[in-house]
Design a protein that fits this description.
six-stranded mixed beta sheet; mainly beta; four-stranded antiparallel beta sheet; 113 residues
Amino acid sequence: QVQLVESGGGFVQPGGSLRLSCAVSGSYFSGVAMAWYRQAPGKQRELVAAIFGGDSTNYADSVKGRFTISRDNAKNTVYLQMNSLKPEDTAVYYCNLWRTAYWGQGTQVTVSS
């Protein structure tokens, strides 16, 4: 059974950094596309970043230059390094096995002074 488990969320002041992790089990991982999404209160879930075979990446315009998605195939884990955080980055962040119904449980990120 495929499982995705996120960790690393929390509370941070504007300008701060957090690194989210998503550990994947039950699925072939190396080269599989993965993505991070987020959902803020009252808003639709939106794609934040994705990493594809060959480690090519794609980012939402709102996070380009601030967030970095990466993966460690030896650990079956995908990461989202978030720098220069803004209050508008506050949301529940979810990892997703790209274009599948497999999602993590979500991790809350709150950016506030």
